[in-house]
Amino acid sequence: EKSVSVDQHPALQRTHSGRLLHDLNNGTDLSEWEPDLCIQMLRIPAAQNYVAINKLIQKAPKKWLLEFLERDGLGVLLESLEKLGDKGFSSVADTFSQLQCVSCLRTVMNSPAGLEYIVQHKEYTRQLANILLSRNNSVKLQVFELLCALCMFSSKGHSLALDALNHFKQICHGRRYRFDLVMSELRTADTVAYQTTLMAFINCLILGQQEVSQRNNLRNELFSVGLEQILKELRNIDEDALQIQIQVFENEQQKDEEELEPLSHQSLFDILIRKVINTPHSHSLQYVLLNLTQMDTSSHETDKVWEILEEVTSLNFKKNLSNRYFKCSLQTRECGTQTMNGRLGRRFTAPSSNSVGVQSDVNQI
């Protein structure tokens, strides 16, 4: 099917968004406002277009919304929001257009069909992460609310929210860790509402993990990039909504710690030694530890090593390892024979990289 441009279509040529708003307000037949035509309107960065189509999406049947999504309506919205964000605060009109565009995006994702669609397309969540480069905190606040919804929608949505943070870390070269952005925004947020949303996002990330050990790992990762100190400062802010989020965080932390007794590094090391001592694995462990001690921990390149180690050791060892890891192991051994040449004392070199609804009240999880 040919895509019809705004200029070619008589209805849009006569009235554009004004006519659509008139039809919506007066209960007129909306059949002429096909998804493809509305997507063409979205390509014009005007607040009135976003307002009109936002209202249409709220009234549209599921079939219309699915066609809108299949014709890349969501992608067009995200692309428009990125372009508006690039303009910064060049005018009040641009700022207002950004807010209306992200509001339209919220409406799409506030439906189960919209959330399910974005979960099936990783590129959309990465586009969402790109919008966090915006200097408009009101826009970023709403993006974090959308990521909250993804976290609570499904386990795949939760994984995509974390992937979005990793993607942002890659496109923003000043960031080393995936939670650097969240910590930075918490420190510099210009409103308590934004801080509350960020804390709600942190809670969604943690509560979206099914296993208590995974929840504790996430908390420890957040503490390692400064959350503990930030929480001390946030507790002094007299705002109920924010304090509720902090209380949720602390209550869930206490419950998990009671269920899973934390062990020190030394205790864990002693347990591991006892398990492998007097077996061939003890030599493997010695070899691994020797390589790890020679890493340059100040280098960003070593971060990937820790990520791989954590991913591999997080596998359920009661089940067989997937073929993926067998292949990885074989490839690593091949590389090792060429580069390490069996020398325990040789300096370790890390591989280089080639590299639930949206309207839910953020005051409660």
From TrEMBL:
<dbReference type="GO" id="GO:0031267">
    <property type="term" value="F:small GTPase binding"/>
</dbReference>
<dbReference type="GO" id="GO:0030036">
    <property type="term" value="P:actin cytoskeleton organization"/>
</dbReference>
<feature type="coiled-coil region">
    <location>
        <begin position="227"/>
        <end position="259"/>
    </location>
</feature>
<dbReference type="GO" id="GO:0003779">
    <property type="term" value="F:actin binding"/>
</dbReference>
<protein>
    <recommendedName>
        <fullName>GBD/FH3 domain-containing protein</fullName>
    </recommendedName>
</protein>
<dbReference type="Pfam" id="PF06367">
    <property type="entry name" value="Drf_FH3"/>
</dbReference>
<dbReference type="InterPro" id="IPR014768">
    <property type="entry name" value="GBD/FH3_dom"/>
</dbReference>
<keyword id="KW-0175">Coiled coil</keyword>
<dbReference type="InterPro" id="IPR016024">
    <property type="entry name" value="ARM-type_fold"/>
</dbReference>
<feature type="domain" description="GBD/FH3">
    <location>
        <begin position="1"/>
        <end position="324"/>
    </location>
</feature>
<dbReference type="Pfam" id="PF06371">
    <property type="entry name" value="Drf_GBD"/>
</dbReference>
<dbReference type="InterPro" id="IPR010473">
    <property type="entry name" value="GTPase-bd"/>
</dbReference>
<dbReference type="InterPro" id="IPR011989">
    <property type="entry name" value="ARM-like"/>
</dbReference>
<dbReference type="InterPro" id="IPR010472">
    <property type="entry name" value="FH3_dom"/>
</dbReference>
